[in-house]
Design a protein that fits this description.
heterodimer, A: alpha/beta, Rossmann fold, Alpha-Beta Plaits, 4-stranded antiparallel beta sheet, 11 helices, 35% helix, B: two-stranded antiparallel sheet, 2% strand
Chain lengths: 311, 262
């Protein structure tokens, strides 16, 4: 079975300034995929090329095995996009705009009607159906934007910063809705500034920086492989001689000055816990308290890019 | 050809054309009425007052003589403005990206915009034509040619609007084209006078102005043989060349995604 989205060696420059320097991505059907990166990393450009907003310069992109340039009608009909920036319109009601959007996808008004009714309902926009975009609140605009990306009942949903600037309540609502879509088998590609969002929702994430994918994996894998976890143990009976006795241990550790606390740095603290406790107690230490510290995806991000995600 | 027709996203194309037409019709006070009102004013003020000084040109009463030019003026400015401003507005408000991500090809997008503007130009032309006939009892000698000129000229200048709309980054760019090129060319194209009334040099220069030919082509079509300065053949040729040239340029730029897709 072909990948939902396959990106090979994608490069792009704007006026000789490179924006993408060879992006490779494989997103499998039904996967919930996150693209993380600081501003200007190339997330929006990558999405832009996949969706047709940005011209392909070199490399290949296919959607369900079809080329996005040669078979653009097929690939674009499979994708729904919710761009980061709100669009506006001075002339038409939001309901009318949903019908137009469906029409561009080749869906007649009659065919589109049930979907549009359902979307207005699901996104709490039924009462506002006759309003213009500018009459909507920020949260409603975001809901409308996402509803619009679903008018063609896409197999792949691409969301560029879907929860930027929305309140906590709406963020939770959108997360639940995206989980529901995902459970129905939709492939979802998300870019986000909120690491928590990626950790909560995505099965797989890529961290992109300066136009390159720095690392890819499940959030847990990334944290495991790059995050520095630790086990902090409050002990009594620690003595300098312990260092010799523990010399065969594989983890790095650092006792405090007074010997009342030892911090072990390990890749997977939960897994290492039993070994540490066992080694300490069999060597004559009594354990008072054990604390496991885990790093987050955010730590991984900073470690890899040297930047916080807000930069 | 069959395959080409099958490959067109007809529903999408129809939707965008409908959007473009509904858009200008929803603000008919800005897009349909002003042309009719200003033309009525031209006919009443210019026509009836100047008629006392210039009773007729080429044996046509002056009031009637100016009407074909007024029709063209409306067709050209409305067709141009619709496409140029619609496109710029879509770029500025981010609406264009909603279309660029759909299975509409660049050419389908381009032709939808052209048809939208051409429709506005055509409607304005017909309104001023009917107004002229109602106020002055103007004849309609060659209705088929009238139709042909209205269609070709509204289409050509809608295509000019497409070109400028693609290039434009501000409303200023769009107005500049009207103020510095289109309006002067229309006025110098002989809306209010026959070029035979001009001195030799200016007469020759006027003949380089394509709008001169379409105004006189319409003058021939509405008023009959003797009224026009240029022959119907040359006028039709000029209109056809403009149509082909501007359509080709506009659709080529759009097809290449120039300033549309980054």
């Amino acid at each position: 079975m072909s990948a939902a989205i396959e990106v090979r060696n994608l490069t792009k420059s704007y006026d000789d300034v490179p924006a993408l320097r060879g992006i490779d991505l494989t997103i499998n059907p039904g996967e919930f995929y996150g693209l993380l990166g600081p501003n200007g990393a190339g997330k929006t450009t990558t999405i832009g090329i996949i969706t047709g907003l940005v011209k392909l310069q070199s490399g290949n992109v296919s959607v369900f095995g079809k080329d996005i340039v040669r078979d653009f009608r097929y690939t674009r009909s499979k994708i729904g996009v919710s761009p980061q920036d709100f669009t506006s319109d001075w002339f038409f009601s939001i309901e009318k705009l949903l019908y137009f959007q469906a029409g561009y996808y080749g869906i007649t008004q009659k065919e589109a009607a049930p979907t549009i009714e359902r979307l207005l309902e699901q996104f709490g926009l039924t009462a506002k159906r006759d309003s213009k975009i500018r009459q909507l609140s920020g949260g409603m605009k975001r809901r409308f934007q996402i509803a619009k990306s679903l008018v063609n009942d896409p197999d792949i949903l691409i969301l560029d910063e879907p929860t930027a600037g929305v309140d906590v309540e709406l963020r939770r609502m959108l997360w639940n809705y995206l989980r529901e879509l995902h459970s129905k088998g939709k492939t979802i590609l998300l870019t986000t500034h909120y690491i928590e969002e990626a950790e909560q929702l995505c099965e797989k994430v890529s961290i992109i920086d300066e136009g390159k994918i720095v690392i890819e994996g499940t959030p847990a894998e990334l944290i495991r492989s790059l995050g520095k976890g630790g086990v902090e143990v409050q002990v009594s009976g620690w003595e300098d001689a312990m260092e010799d006795r523990l010399s065969n241990m594989t983890f790095a550790y650092e006792p405090s000055e007074d010997g009342g606390r030892v911090i072990f740095t390990v890749d997977n603290p939960e897994k290492a816990l039993t070994g540490i406790v066992g080694a300490l107690s069999s060597n004559g230490c009594s354990i008072h308290e054990v604390k496991v510290t885990k790093s987050s995806l955010e730590d991984v991000f900073i470690e890899l890019t040297g930047k916080t995600i807000g930069e | 050809m069959t395959t080409l027709v099958q490959h067109i996203n007809w529903v999408g194309f129809r939707t965008l054309v409908a959007r473009e037409v509904t858009r200008f019709l929803s603000v008919y006070r800005q897009t349909v009425f002003p042309g009719v009102i200003s033309s009525a004013l031209y006919i009443i003020i210019f026509g009836f007052t100047l008629q006392q000084r210039i009773s007729s040109i080429n044996d046509v009463p002056y009031t009637i003589y100016i009407i074909p030019g007024l029709i063209m003026m409306n067709v050209i400015t409305n067709a141009y403005n619709n496409t140029a401003s619609s496109l710029l507005q879509m770029k500025l408000l981010g609406q264009l990206q909603d279309m660029l991500i759909t299975p509409l090809s660049n050419l389908e997008l381009a032709f939808s915009f052209i048809i939208g503007g051409a429709t506005r130009g055509f409607i304005n032309g017909v309104m001023v034509l009917l107004l002229g006939m109602a106020i002055t009892g103007m004849p309609l000698e060659h209705p088929f040619y009238v139709l042909l000129f209205l269609l070709m000229v509204s289409w050509s200048f809608s295509s000019v609007g497409l070109i400028i709309g693609i290039m434009a980054e501000s409303w200023d760019n769009i107005a500049t084209m009207v103020n510095f090129f289109i309006t002067p060319l229309i006025f110098l194209g002989g809306v209010f006078y026959s070029i035979n009334m001009l001195p030799g040099f200016w007469r020759t220069l006027s003949m380089a102005n394509p709008i001169y030919y379409v105004i006189n082509g319409l003058r021939y079509s509405v008023l009959g043989g003797g009224a026009a300065d240029s022959s119907i053949g040359i006028s039709l040729f000029a209109a056809a060349v403009m149509t082909i040239l501007f359509t080709a340029a506009g659709t080529y730029l759009f097809h290449r995604g120039y300033r549309i897709r980054q």
